[in-house]
Amino acid sequence: MKYTILFVDDEPRILDALKIALRKDPYEILTAESGKEGLEILAQQPVDVIVSDEQMPGMSGSVFLGLVREKYPDTIRIILTGQASLDAAIRAINEGEVYRFLTKPCNPVDLSFTIHNALQMKALVQESAKLLTRTRGQKALLDDLEMEHPGMTDVKRDASGAILLEEEDIDIDHLLEEIRSELAPSPVNK
User: Fold this and answer.
1) What is the Cα 147 distance to its own chain's centre?
2) 178 burial class (0-12, 13-18, 19+ CB within 10 angstroms)?
3) Is the pLDDT of residue 10 over 80?
């Protein structure tokens, strides 16, 4: 999967330098010279990570990333600024919920590493969401089975953790068949 990175800075030479710094990384690199232009790009295509300057005419990076947070919450947001101040950092964190706050000049290796880590975090969050959905589905299935077979989820275990079953309480073959039928995909009508 090729990730998309958007750099937003009002200085074209900075944008060129960022593209050159990451030319060997496997990313699609997009650039915008203002927050407004960045929002136009986001409206046209998904972006995985945004690296934005803070001090820009018309719209600060904090305001821009705050709008991105509202409209595109899954996009990772990073500030890269030459005007590092505590106020700017607090504003970026509060308004844009930024992942990292970097200062110019930024070592290209540090920038690449930060983007790589941001993408790893994004992948972990997405995988976590998938697992949560799957777990909720499994819990719903167990709840349904418990309603049909009260006491079924009250499980006794031996010292090794193996489940102990009493044959007279549960017809294992019948139960397994019910579980298989619940998990089997439904036939598609043609």
Assistant:
1) 36
2) middle
3) yes
Q: Is the residue at 84 inside a domain?
A: yes
Q: Collect all residues with Cβ–Cβ distance below 8 Å to 128 and sequence separation of at least 6.
A: none
CATH code of 54's domain: 3.40.50.2300
- Is 90 exceeded by the pLDDT of residue 9? yes
Q: How far is CA 181 from the centre of its chain?
A: 34
Per-residue pLDDT tens digits for 28-64: 999 999 999 999 999 999 999 999 998 888 998 888 9
Is residue 139 in a domain? no
Total structural domains within the chain: 1
Chain centre distance of CA 76 = 8
Residue 143 lies in a domain: no
Q: What's the CA gap between 188 and 190, in Å, rounded?
A: 6
**Each residue's pLDDT tens digit, 143-185:** 888 888 887 777 778 888 887 766 665 667 777 787 888 777 7
Residue 81: DSSP 8-state:
E
- The span from the CA of 141 to the CA of 178, in Å, is 11
Structural domain harbouring 24: 3-126
Residue 187 lies in a domain: no
The single-letter code of the amino acid at 190 is K
Residue for token digits 């820009």? Answer: 56
